[in-house]
Amino acid sequence: MRDRIRVVVLGTGQMGSGIARQILRTPGLELAGAVARRAARGGLDLGRAIDLGRDLGLAVDADLEVAIARARPDVAIQATCSRVADAREEITALLRRGIHVVSIAEEMAWPAARAPAVARELHALAVAHGAAVLGTGVNPGFVLDLLVVVLSGVCADVRTITATRVNDLAPYGPTVLREQGVGLTPEAFRTGLADGSVVGHHGFAESIHMIAAALGWTIDRIEESREPIVARIRRETPLVRVEPGEVAGCLHTAVAWRAGSPAVTLVHPQQVQPHVEGVETGDTIEIAATPDVRVTARPEIPGGLATIALAVNAIPRVLAAPPGLHCMADLPPLAAIGADVRHLVEAARLRTEHRRG
Amino acid sequence: MRDRIRVVVLGTGQMGSGIARQILRTPGLELAGAVARRAARGGLDLGRAIDLGRDLGLAVDADLEVAIARARPDVAIQATCSRVADAREEITALLRRGIHVVSIAEEMAWPAARAPAVARELHALAVAHGAAVLGTGVNPGFVLDLLVVVLSGVCADVRTITATRVNDLAPYGPTVLREQGVGLTPEAFRTGLADGSVVGHHGFAESIHMIAAALGWTIDRIEESREPIVARIRRETPLVRVEPGEVAGCLHTAVAWRAGSPAVTLVHPQQVQPHVEGVETGDTIEIAATPDVRVTARPEIPGGLATIALAVNAIPRVLAAPPGLHCMADLPPLAAIGADVRHLVEAARLRTEHRRG
Questions:
Q1: Which of A5, A77, B175, B352 is the most exposed place for a label (fewest CB within 10 A)?
Q2: A299: cis peptide before it, omega within 30°?
Q3: How far from A154 is each of A210, A261, A262, A331, CA to CA, in Å?
Q4: What are the Cα distances from residue A332, in Å, to A115, A321, B99, B161?
Q5: CB contact (8 A) between residue A216 and residue B340
Q6: Nearest residue on chain A to B283, alpha-carbon basis
Q7: What is the pLDDT of residues A23-53, one digit of tens each?
Q8: Domain shared by A17 and A131, yes or no
């Protein structure tokens, strides 16, 4: 094992750049390269590409195979897309070389939810090449699923789970705003839902499957609804202005039915500036069980920063995990990496060897 | 593997009885026996011993070896004591037979905190006999340690951790009330601290070590303080009456120093009926990091019920764990056992085999 863990980041957008910068700040980790999907970014200095404010003397690669051959990474963090179908090719290429993968693609939190065949294929490939794959991110991957599973540990006889995440879209870019219908008329929002341009939250099915698998529940069906959040007061960010009567975001809800009753209800209204109309942001998890549990994060766990931290904090756990496809609920918790990751990696390595006999 | 997991419970006090009753309610688990330390309980019908309201046609054993030979358990839950020194003999006897152990002894949450030699010995014994040992419970084991570690996963560059648990001792028995100094004069409280009869919370060192190990932190020293919580208004429970000027409980605080600064501050005032003086119960975790995280459970996660649930929910995880001594932060999360534990155990078994090659 080398002195430092070599990491390659796929994606140089907001998430990929934040992850790359965090790797540079973390002793024990080495940013060995970055891969951009946009060919125009190839050759750009990596420091510049990730808004570091200084050059790194290392160029962004536009070709994954070239990057792998050059950077010889131990682990790759994939931050290029949301869907399994779109992530598959990159993850496959990495696993074939025995490189561990952390993906922040939302659907990778539980890829079998929408792509069971691909999930099986990735698992088999990972096992064959001695590598581990983990999907993570703030949500899915943490707030509305892992945290629910962790809190359920203090419960017996769980009857229902209700979890709500109220956040502010103001820090997000144009793609996210568009997918939530921000700035549309209510009519255009309905049309957008019908033609797929308004999608709401990516991740309810993934979260519900993760919870159900952990609790040993069989889910009969999942019902989702998406409603426009119509502004009553003007809301304005550098990217968008929403007038009264226009859409400030999407109230997306999922209800999972089990044995004829609603068992898991996930509520995720995403909008710009909810505080303008007196709505406080926050995450709330309520489990009706013995005992009842009610936990709140106020304000909400910040999405972008949390996803960046989770992706980096996942590195020691993924290195120590048995080969195969994993979800957040079947690995030990990802702790914040402290001053030095080396002892964690060493401990992880010893543990892995011990496990593998 | 048998159709059901055979469980023996050590201890028929409030916790042991609650755990035994929960095992009886959980499909996939079989209550194979119970062991009482008090010889007078030996031979008592187990149903009667655990306040089930009906006989079970199975006698409580007063001898652990006899119980093991008769019950042939897969796993034992130890609920007899708080200290490693006191738990060691029972755990050793179980491990020698290859029986997995879940202990709710507070010090078993991180036994190396006070008994590093015993911790090493138990680990070696567990490995030698292919069994796993886990210490769990609401606190230490969950609120002021595991939950902190889990939440740290969304953080980078953690600076400080502050966690507070405000609970009500009203549901607890005379031993707990005595150890918190409830009903004493402030002078008698001070004397009790000096002679060791007033102890405050068992578990700060364990929680701090678990957090530090997960985050890769080196702790220089831990400073603890115990102050009497003096009632200003009369507080009264079926077991105790506290007049104004008398002690309603113990404000126990621990500060862990790292690199010259306070890094982890744990605050745990335990008293009867805090609401009488307008104090709301609850658990709060604050992590100063990127991003900051602030999470609250309100009311607090109920101690007794949560410990019972954790002990039972630990069973599938302990069966699936590699041989050795584990803490809550190095196993995958204990989820609430659902309608049936068998598929979890099967999945756990397959995973274990896979890991062991």
A1: B175
A2: yes
A3: 18, 23, 21, 18
A4: 25, 9, 23, 20
A5: yes
A6: A295
A7: 999 988 999 999 999 888 999 999 999 999 9
A8: yes
